[in-house]
Input
Amino acid sequence: MPEKMVMISGASTVLWILFAASQAFKLEISPEYRTVAQIGDSLSLTCTTTGCESPSFFWRTHIDSPLNGKVRNEGNKSILTMDPVSFENEHFYLCTAICGSEKLEQAIQVDIYSFPKDPEIQLSGPLEVGKPAMVKCLAPDIYPANSLGMDLFKGDHLLKSQEFLEVVKNSLVTRSLEATFTPVSEDIGKALMCRARLYIEIEPTKRETVKELQIYTSPKNTVISVYPSRRLQEGGAVTMTCSSEGLPAPEIFWSKKLDNGMLQLLSGNATLTLVAMRMEDSGIYVCEGVNLIGRSKTEVELIVQEKPFTVDIFPGSRVAAQVGDPVVLTCAVVGCDSPSFSWRTQIDSPLNGEVRSEGAKSMLTLSPVSFENEHSYLCTVTCTQRKLEKGIQVEVYSFPKDPEIEMSGLLVHGRPVTVNCTVPDVYPFDHLEIELLKGETVLMNKYFLEEMSTKSLETKSLEMTFIPTMEDTGKALVCLAKLHSGETESEPKQRQSTRTLYVNVAPEEIAIWVSPSPTLREGSPVNLSCSSDGFPDPKILWSRQLPSGELQPLSEERMLILTSTKMEDSGIYVCEGINPAGISNKSVELQIIQDSPKDIQLTAFPSESVKEGDTVIISCTCGNVPQTWIILKKKAKTGDMVLKSVDGAYTILKAQRQDAGVYECESKTEVGSQLRSLTLDVKGRENNKDYFSPELLALYCASSLVIPAIGMIIYFARKANMKGSYSLVEAQKSKV
Output
């Protein structure tokens, strides 16, 4: 045990020596070697040791000047903070660390600068096209000044560039760059850019300022527009608009030149509107465009004249008045304070009306209008010594009612009908036009120009005959009357009447259905249905024809139902279709008989129970009934299958299990039917081998002879005792 402890102790000593050698005393300073700080900012220098648990730190400048900062030690770190940085901090700083007997030192150069603001652009004054201007670019509070460079651009063009090499110690200076240029129109929209570069360390620090050029031009091309005219009448209005070119856009000022030459300011808007003009508003009006650079003006002369009075007559130079209605003619004066009025007809006939004057208006009322009012009326206005006269033509007409449509009778398909369109109490009828339309088709129109017109109310009409068809139903028959008023109106007066056409069609194509059959067994029900085409829908009447030939009415329903027929129900039944356009009929004969199908037999030979592979004959026969139909079927869930048999016999060769099932025979006559059915059972054999015994061979040979024999017997029996036979191939429908 002591030997092991000595060995462990020796190993520990070796490891400690190796660890101590790996943790040698070191000193690092951050940032390394050199740093740059802007005046007024904060800067921290950090000394860090490794390999020493409790180092001591000392800071000094290379020339032993004051640190101008605060020192803070934290374990193996020492931090010198300068806040704010000033000219006194531009030194070579040394950090000393002592660990026991070891002493280490690291140095760092602190350079300072000042570049706090973007440069400023100053102009000598407003920029005017064609006039030289000076631009100055200022870079304030710069240090060191000998590291500054400045460029001045106008758009993409360099106006001036300068490097400042003068050294100024421990002082902030402002440097400027000046240039002179002459603005041109192309400079509008361009910008001045001042760029300052302070070369610090390797890459320069850059600041720049951009200022858009504001180019000014003195006002010019000042123009006045006047609406409606420079010559005006009293009471009128005028609008004058002034425009002037310049940068910035000139302000517009309106003035009126007084008799003494002075200007009276009126407005500061581009548009000047004067209303209710008077004679004293005549004169010279001045428009002046003004901006920062200059001014430009122009003049216009307005002349206000005395306004003459005018006379107007309403409703116009011509008016159309309907007989019996009132009409008012109005004579109005404008521009006269105290007018006097007088009315007369052009041929000095009586006015046949009442006159009433109020101020600047005079009204002649004709009520009611008659043929005597068909004149040219004149209104004379006197104002001081002047007279004016206006005339109006009164045209009389009568068109009081819509046309009347009359027809000669009922509208029936294919039957001619006469239409009369009448227009009552018309004047003047020589201006009348009547038009008859069917839908959009013009059937006929008529003018009355050739007839002698008199001063009286007349009734005029148009008459025509046409043949209606079914296609006319629903169309509109329109009677359109137009009274052309000559020059009074551009469009004629119109009245119209409309009648919707309903064309009747006589009953036709009568159809009769008898269910189940016209030939019936006594006691059976029968339904007789009748239909007929026509418009309007025909009324149905069922009758029975008596031996005398007369018709006995039975029903007005479309279906005649006989629930239990008797022999005396046999006979002829007549269906009549009746509507306003006519009558049509059709007949059917019912035959009631007592015969019915005799018993039928359905057999399976040799048996209704056979084995697989056997031959089976299923046969259906019936008694002596005239016109008998036989239908042989096999019943199945998916639907009955009609079998193709020969004379009612169906042969199954080598019966299989799927042949098993219910077989049905239906016997039909005109008066009834009967059904018979049997169930065929097909049993499986004991094994699947082919089996052919001598007994089966004998039976097969016998059946080969029996089947034709049975067929011949059935054939001759049917030929002797039955009126008809049935083919299962053709037996899909019952024969009626």
In short: The chain is about 5% helix and 55% strand. The CA atoms of residues 405 and 733 lie 58 Å apart. The radius of gyration is 65 Å.
